[in-house]
Amino acid sequence: MSLLHPGITAFQAIARLGTVHAAAQEIGLSQTGVTQRIRGLERDLGVTLFVRSRRGMRLTTEGEALVRWCQRVGDLEGELISFMGREAPAGAVRVTLTGPSSLMRRRVIPAVAGVLARHRGVVATYLLDDQGGGLAHLKQGTAQLAALPRTEVVNEVDAKLLAPVRLRLLGPAAWAGRDLAEIVRAERIIDFNAQDAATLDFLREHGLPTEGLRQRHFVNSPDALAELVAAGRGFSVLEEEFAAPFLAAGRLFDLAPRQVLQQEFALAWYPRHEMPGYFRDIIDAVG
């Protein structure tokens, strides 16, 4: 059962998969057939939905808006199926949530699991993203809910403030007893990427030097980052709950035990005129 026009079905497949080739394989058409459906849809709507790039098909602003409209139609389809007392074989409704991996693992996924137990016709996709792409996922329609730093919440989305994330400054256990200022001057910071300023923010907030520091290491995984710190390759900030097992095992050492950096996060989504019950329950559950 589908409430969507065939042209919209082709559009959704490209938006989700990124290429005409992959979309054609999924919906069982030739690439020419998919392209013709998209051109017909663009002609009917009077807008351009995609532009080609080296990475595939990229949504235009109008394409992003159409993705969100399709999501609302999908919600209506799921509500209708539930009302009729049926459940689609592959799940009536899919909701995609994204956010930093440590936050997703400890807060979002456990909370949503409880909600899904009450909404059997809903299935979830979890996108663990430590590259700061949450807002882009919302705009492109590849996620319906995103855990974002509060500073990234824009006027066009609705949001709910979450409990702050507490970050601790950590080094390997072998550094116990060393002077913190000396560590900061002599050792390297390890961060997720060049845009990750959390460790520098910690140093600034607590009056530690941030000028003239050595080049940073980068690794885009909290698990790998913790392992590099434990191995003595540098120091970093890690989310308090994530770091707890490493501290308990004596593999990491808290370099500033009386100091933390609090980061404010929010759960964000695009406004919906009629919010489905499962969607509201997910928002209420994530804290």
Task: Report on the architecture of this protein.
This protein is an alpha/beta fold. It has three domains: 1-59, Orthogonal Bundle (Arc Repressor Mutant, subunit A), CATH 1.10.10; 61-156 and 265-287, D-Maltodextrin-Binding Protein, domain 2 (3-Layer(aba) Sandwich), CATH 3.40.190.10; 165-263, Periplasmic binding protein-like II (D-Maltodextrin-Binding Protein, domain 2). The protein has helices at residues 6-17, 20-27, 31-45, 61-83, 101-118, 134-140, 180-186, 198-205, 222-230, 240-248, 277-285, and strands at 50-53, 56-59, 93-99, 122-128, 145-149, 158-161, 165-172, 190-191, 217-218, 236-239, 252-254, 261-263, 265-269. The strands form four sheets. A five-stranded mixed sheet has the order 4-3-5-13-6, with helices on both faces. Strands 7, 10, 11 and 12 form a four-stranded antiparallel sheet that branches. Helix 8 (198-205) links the parallel strand 8 (190-191) and strand 9. Helix 1 (6-17) crosses helix 3.
Short description:
44% of the residues lie in helices and 20% in strands.
Task: Provide keyphrases for this structure.
287 residues, Arc Repressor Mutant, subunit A, D-Maltodextrin-Binding Protein, domain 2, 5-stranded mixed sheet, 11 helices
